């Protein structure tokens, strides 16, 4: 059964834990979940994974100082269980034929695809974000770390729509970023096309608000959660700025 979303929950970035907001949403109300959760990655040992995010995800040549974020040091089993927990709630609040598009890195890709299926979604495939050659992390004797992955799944069948997205998004992210793990705005604008006109886009881990801004810019409804006060302020201000822009001709 599908229900109307309460007015105090929709078109807002909530300064709250994702699960608390998800549990407040009614069944079957979301058309697309586009999100980028903490990866709890960045190393092959527990010691390396326990470092602060800037030590794991920011190159030594980057001078910009980004605010840190918490809850990024789980081991792989606890991270997988945590993903199953919030993904089960995302499944509940999703409409039939709703899409899920979730970012992940190469280390956690197998765990995420397991968690997505355990939550009830049908895994449909994996798209690639190619950061382009100017944004790689080269490795002597091996391959550069140049990509992240976007896992695609649906609740039930794939909704028929005149939308054709590429399997590889080659997008160079301009510096300085708003968030140390920010994703490209154009990629977000492409992916929100999966939501129907007037639909609802959910991002339980909003960060600097890239995905929510794409949804709002496409005249979609949106719901965001961000636990870190600094990034909540960034996302809220970014979305408010869209209200001051002139309407498209």
UniProtKB/TrEMBL annotation:
<feature type="domain" description="DNA methylase N-4/N-6">
    <location>
        <begin position="30"/>
        <end position="235"/>
    </location>
</feature>
<dbReference type="GO" id="GO:0032259">
    <property type="term" value="P:methylation"/>
</dbReference>
<dbReference type="InterPro" id="IPR002941">
    <property type="entry name" value="DNA_methylase_N4/N6"/>
</dbReference>
<dbReference type="InterPro" id="IPR029063">
    <property type="entry name" value="SAM-dependent_MTases_sf"/>
</dbReference>
<keyword id="KW-0489">Methyltransferase</keyword>
<keyword id="KW-0808">Transferase</keyword>
<protein>
    <recommendedName>
        <fullName>Methyltransferase</fullName>
        <ecNumber>2.1.1.-</ecNumber>
    </recommendedName>
</protein>
<dbReference type="InterPro" id="IPR001091">
    <property type="entry name" value="RM_Methyltransferase"/>
</dbReference>
<dbReference type="Pfam" id="PF01555">
    <property type="entry name" value="N6_N4_Mtase"/>
</dbReference>
<dbReference type="GO" id="GO:0003677">
    <property type="term" value="F:DNA binding"/>
</dbReference>
<dbReference type="GO" id="GO:0008170">
    <property type="term" value="F:N-methyltransferase activity"/>
</dbReference>
<comment type="similarity">
    <text>Belongs to the N(4)/N(6)-methyltransferase family.</text>
</comment>
